[in-house]
Design goal:
Distance between the termini: 29 Å
Radius of gyration: 27 Å
Structural class: mainly beta
Shape: globular
CATH class: Mainly Beta
Largest sheet: 22 strands, antiparallel, barrel
CATH superfamily: TonB-dependent receptor, beta-barrel domain
Helix content: under 10%
Number of strands: 46
């Protein structure tokens, strides 16, 4: 390959790999590296352009790379992108809470995930042009673009930390194509074989219509064993083998409890009656069923038996399910001087999740103080979440023929959010009536808590971005976003199962306001393949109402009623380009974050609530190189340093509890992250092309949560087998050790139609803990008759070996 062609090829790799540890696309059996050269474009700025010409830090991962490396989920995908971290909660919790974190902008606990939090995420996610966090399966994707820093001048839905765009493959006119993919895999510790299948077809319907349909089904057996389960009767109550008043209980075990059954389908119809107009209507659906969590409990059960890898001590199974529907109509009209685009969409995302709360009751001494050491305690929290919205976005994007380029858009969103919880102490009423028949009327039922949170959010926004090319090499950009938002919340709560302590409240709250945000950018193309840029951009996240009760038996301070918007200013200086055979990207950033929103609980009664911290900052560097050695060896290296810290001492909203001190490391934000990848292509032999791939990911230690009342006293955590050990205090805090993950694969391409891939995820079977429910928060308590253990470490997928067969025509 000559130098010019090789340089263009490496530039294409930058667009396809994000310089972040993914391999180059595997080549067809009759291809050479030179044959794969193409111009890789992104549409981050709403028009097609080379990724090297985008004057800020953007990463893009091509759909062929996702497929060829058999990327299993969004957590694996995000780990490959510098500046991005993720809490890997497994399939069960992957759609409940957005765990994507860009440049360390996070104050929430890594253990969140079983209920929908009130504060919006710091990172927005888009499916095509719809702002939706649904965590769809990675099926039939054209590419994933990750934009770092606030993006309110380019997209209808603004974001503090950045934006992730999942861009799906569009129907093609005049082309019939089809493909099938089938995989089988086994996870270390699992007794079953997981299977997955995908089918895609593109059908031309005359000269102006095309239909594209894709469907995927995953059937994974699970790997986690629940080893302290109560045996339950037909009413879901723990069996009492020696009678209701005895202290005996019957236990059982469920192997491979965390199964995942997932079905995804999408149909898209393209109509292009003229050269200057097209419209695409699409409908996407995903339905999931999960049997339990993935992870491992810490310490021992109530009988003193230590937990092994992939064993959880919850006293009950923790199933979950969810469904998401997305309908969209996207239309483009080429006006000559600009393109007018309309994007109309409606989605409905809802789910149900059951959580084991017995350990929580035990560690708060509630089983002793309020429930008379009920002999077979089983506290269930049954939660529902819902998010549905209508969204309309219209934008005008100029062509690129003049010295001025612009984007002007209007945005409207009407969103309705739902969050519920019903808590039960299963079988308590039956036991109470038997133990204290004279006082049977004192207990209402097994249900001791009911929570309903309804929120309606409406936003109207006008945004724009204009670039002036001073010379062919020098340009400046200015952007703005004006918006008006309104949020109204209604919260209803009922507490206690005793008639004497029963209390209920219904509270409402309304917040809203208008604001203007700005962005400024300058860039200088110092040679044909080098770009120097600087950006200052503002971000904003809406405030809201907790509607916490302030009267009655369970009253909290009025300080918990509402929380303020939080804002930030992102400063970035970077350089990107190509030097000889190396593509590079280097940037430094500083983020000044005001009033960070912190999902937490109220001081006295632990109601869900959001409060503001005073301030935080994040600063660091992101560096990547990518290149090719000869015609066969591709490499990629990435490094990110992030120092994200609390700017002021943090107290609870009512000022009664100290949470953490100024300078504390923000949770879920490792200081050091390294990514690496190697791909070696064996020359074609007997019409078979073989590509070997290896990628690695390392992150340094990080904090589990900000909640650490003793951290100001130089608290030093202890560990057993590399995992946080129980010390009794602090309750939520854990220092999570760093970890390394390695993946590998070998792909054989047989002509143009068939290929086979053998792959291994997590080669060395690392625990890779990204979140912890501590023993002090959820652990065992045999003195209160709780012999299970609700603590757990959220671990990455154990070593998984698989094979994938693909056919396309």
């Amino acid at each position: 390959m000559d130098r010019a062609l090789k340089s263009r090829f490496v530039s294409a790799l930058l667009g396809g790999t994000a310089l972040a540890g993914f391999s180059a696309p595997a080549l067809a059996a009759d291809a050479s590296p030179a044959a794969a050269i193409e111009t890789v474009t992104v549409t981050a700025e709403r028009r097609p352009e080379n990724i090297l010409d985008v004057p800020y830090n953007i990463s893009a991962v091509g759909g062929d790379v996702i497929a060829n490396n058999h990327v299993l989920d969004a957590a694996e995908l995000m780990r490959s992108i510098p500046g991005v971290s993720v809490v890997d909660r497994g399939d069960r919790n992957a759609s409940t809470v957005n765990g994507i974190r860009i440049r360390g902008l996070n104050v929430d606990s890594s253990a969140l995930g079983d209920y929908a939090v009130s504060a919006a995420a710091t990172v927005s996610t888009y499916v095509n042009d719809t702002p939706l966090f649904a965590n769809f399966l990675l099926t039939d994707i054209a590419r994933v673009e990750v934009l770092k820093g606030p993006q309110g001048t380019l997209y209808g839905s603004g974001a503090l930390g950045g934006t992730v765009r999942y861009i799906l493959n569009a129907p093609e006119l005049g082309v019939f194509s089809a493909g099938l993919s089938a995989s089988a895999s086994n996870v270390d510790g699992s007794s079953g074989v997981g299977v997955s299948g995908t089918g895609t077809v593109n059908i031309p319907l005359g000269d102006t219509l095309a239909l594209r349909i894709t469907a995927t089904h995953n059937q994974y057996p699970g790997v986690t064993d629940y080893v302290n389960l109560y045996q339950l009767d037909a009413n879901g109550v723990p069996v009492a083998p020696s009678g209701v008043l005895s202290t005996d209980a019957a236990y059982t075990t469920k192997k491979d409890a965390d199964f995942a059954h997932q079905t995804y389908a999408r149909a898209a119809l393209l109509w292009k009656p003229t050269d200057n107009f097209d419209a695409t209507a699409s409908f996407t659906i995903q339905s999931d069923q999960f049997g339990g969590r993935r992870g491992m409990s810490l310490g021992t059960d109530g009988f003193g038996v230590p937990y092994k890898d992939s064993e959880i001590g919850s006293a009950q199974l923790e199933p979950a399910s969810r469904d998401v529907y997305l309908g969209a109509l996207e239309a483009n009209l080429d006006l000559g001087f600009a393109t007018l685009t309309s994007s109309t969409s409606y989605y409905n995302h809802r789910g149900e999740i059951t959580s084991e709360n017995t350990g929580f009751y035990a560690q708060n001494e509630w089983l002793h103080d309020f429930y008379y050491n009920y002999p077979r305690p089983l506290a269930s929290a049954v939660r529902h979440y819902g998010d549905k919205a209508f969204i309309e976005e219209v934008r005008l994007v100029s062509d690129t023929s003049g010295p001025v380029e612009y984007i002007l858009g209007g945005y409207y969103q009407n969103q309705q959010l739902l969050s519920t919880q019903d808590s039960f102490l299963r079988g308590f009423k039956r036991w109470w009536d038997t133990a204290y028949p004279a006082f049977a009327a004192s207990v209402i039922s097994d249900q001791d808590y009911l929570y309903r949170h309804h929120e309606e959010f409406t936003e109207k926004a006008i945004y724009g971005d204009a670039t002036y090319h001073i010379t062919d090499a020098l340009q400046v950009t200015g952007g703005f976003r004006w918006f008006d938002d309104r949020s109204s919340a209604i919260v209803h709560q009922e507490t206690a199962l005793y008639t004497g302590f029963f209390d209920s409240s219904t509270t409402t709250g309304v917040v809203g306001g208008s604001k203007v945000l700005f962005k400024g950018n300058a860039s200088w193309k110092f040679d044909d393949s080098g770009l120097l840029y600087a950006t200052v951009s503002q971000g904003y996240r809406r405030g809201g109402s907790n509607a916490t009760p302030t009267t009655g038996h369970f009253a909290e301070s009025p300080a918990w009623l509402t929380y303020k918007p939080d804002t930030n200013v992102n400063y970035e200086l970077g350089v990107k380009g190509r030097w000889n055979d190396i593509v590079y990207n280097l940037d430094a950033f500083y983020v000044d974050w005001k009033d960070p929103q912190f999902n937490t609980a109220t001081t006295f009664w632990g109601f869900f609530a959001v409060q503001n911290a005073g301030s935080a900052t994040s600063k660091g560097i992101e560096a990547q190189i990518d290149g090719y050695v000869g015609d066969s060896l591709h490499y990629g290296l990435g490094y990110t340093y992030t120092e994200a810290t609390l700017g002021k001492d943090l107290y609870s909203a009512d000022g009664l509890d100290f949470i953490n001190a100024k300078g504390a490391q923000l949770p879920g934000a490792p200081r050091h992250v390294l990514t690496a990848a190697l791909d070696y292509t064996v020359p074609t032999l007997f019409d078979v092309l073989t590509t070997f791939h290896l990628d690695g990911y390392y992150q340094s230690s990080m904090q589990n949560t900000l909640s650490c009342s003793t951290c100001a006293l130089n608290f030093v955590p202890s560990f057993i087998n590399g995992l946080p050990a129980f010390t009794g205090e602090p309750k939520f805090y854990a220092h999570l050790p760093g970890y390394t993950l390695w993946n590998t694969s070998a792909r054989l391409a047989f002509g143009d139609n068939w290929d086979a891939m053998f792959w291994v995820k997590n080669i060395f079977d690392a625990h890779a803990v990204s979140g912890v429910y501590t023993e002090a928060y959820m652990g065992t308590s045999p003195g209160q008759n709780y012999y299970g253990n609700g603590s757990k470490a959220l671990t990455a997928l154990p070593r998984t070996v698989g094979i994938t067969l693909n056919y396309k025509m």
